[in-house]
Amino acid sequence: MSFPAYDQGVTAEALSVSPESEGYRNAGVGLLSALAFAQGQWRKADRQLSRLAVGEKEWSLEMRTLFSVFLSGFSPSPIPEIDLTRLRDSIADWLPGEGVEIPSYVNLFGPHAQHHPEFRLYLLGLLNACLGEVEGAREHSLELRAYGTSEETRDLAQALSLSVDAHAADVRGEKETALRAFESIDYFPRFEFISASPFFSRALDRWLRGELLVELDRPGEALAWYNTLSDGWGEFLFAGPAHLRQAQIYEELADTASAIHHYQEFVRLWSEADPVFGGLLAEAGEALDALGAGSSPSQDPPR
User: Fold this and answer.
1) Nearest Cα to 272, choosing from 66, 34, 11, 39?
2) What band does 65 get if pLDDT is binned at 50, 70 and 90?
3) Average pLDDT in the 111-123 region?
4) In the predicted structure, residue 77 carries a pLDDT above the cut 70
5) Cβ count within 10 A of residue 292
6) By C-alpha distance, which of 52, 4, 62, 53 is closest to 31?
7) How many whole angstroms separate alpha carbon 167 and alpha carbon 181?
8) Which pLDDT band holds residue 110 (cuts at 50, 70, 90)?
9) What spatial distance separates the first Cα and last Cα of the chain, rounded to whole Å?
10) Crossing angle for the helix pair 22-38 and 57-71, nearest 10 degrees?
11) What is the DSSP string of 128-155?
12) Cα–Cα distance measured from residue 213 to residue 225, given in angstroms and rounded to the nearest whole number
């Protein structure tokens, strides 16, 4: 498996057993969990996150929840409702401090270090929305709106509040309302944070924004949002499904060459995905056959 700009598997394996420091080992395990998730290997990602929970409990819990929220939208989903409920209980019981100094030795965990309280409220809101408990989601959105001890934390909390609102509106079937909530977000984190964390790059929101635009019959706009989920650290996590969505849209638009390219990219990235996703891979393979591409290697999209 190779991501266009983030082929870090060998490095991650080496770091995960590094004799140099616990920080390096944790960074390696964290990267392994992300790489596994990006290949549709939820079971492997889950094992790595459990391993990481010993040294980086907060980051592990936050990423497990973000991954679970994303996968809960798949059918079939590897995340049963009981797991979402247990995650919500774990986060509700978690009482993070107000923030710690950002570690200088590793960028993977540092961006989260000062923002665990905001992420706790955010993830509680998302989980409530996923579970259909939109009033609970609204309560956490309101808590976020009132949160903030500095301009930076207030801006982040406002963005997270609007994100919860959008996810809850989507669950209620209010697609236009959800889209307006996303369009209202005016937040620009530090550049180095964007490249280090999907929480700051807002990758999950960009995915849902694409989904909303598809449902609102605005495929051209949806393509633009899916296309942002490429190969940066905060984005490549969702690259496989984003390629699948682009392929499906291009096929509907009768752009055969682009559809073939994105189907092939999806198959390349998720070829070793968990069995629960076998149906998606089979559908992509059937689409490639129907488009006359078969199992030929991925080619660059037409210019």
Assistant:
1) 39
2) very high
3) 92
4) yes
5) 9
6) 52
7) 9
8) confident
9) 25
10) 0
11) HHHTT-HHHHHHHHHHHHT--SSHHHHH
12) 9
Which H or E element spans position 33?
Answer: helix 22-38
Query: Using CA atoms, how far apart are residues 187 and 34, in angstroms rounded to an integer?
Result: 25
Q: What is the DSSP letter of 174?
A: -
Q: Is the pLDDT of residue 271 over 60?
A: yes
Q: How many residues does the chain have?
A: 303
What's the pTM value of the predicted model, to 2 decimals?
0.90
Which of 151-155, 206-210, 220-224, 299-303 is least confident?
299-303
Where does the pLDDT of residue 175 fall: very low under 50, low under 70, confident under 90, or very high at 90 and above?
A: very high
Closest C-alpha to 39, from 264, 274, 255: 274
- Segment 240-258 shows an average pLDDT of 97
Handedness of CA 113, 117, 120, 122 (dihedral sign): negative
Residue 232 structure tokens: 């940066």
Return the biggest CA–CA distance within the chain: 58
User: Domains of the chain: which residue ranges?
Assistant: 1-55, 58-201, 209-303
Burial of 162 (0-12, 13-18, 19+ CB in 10 A): buried
From the number of C-beta atoms within 10 Å of its C-beta (0-12, 13-18, 19+), residue 44 rates as: middle
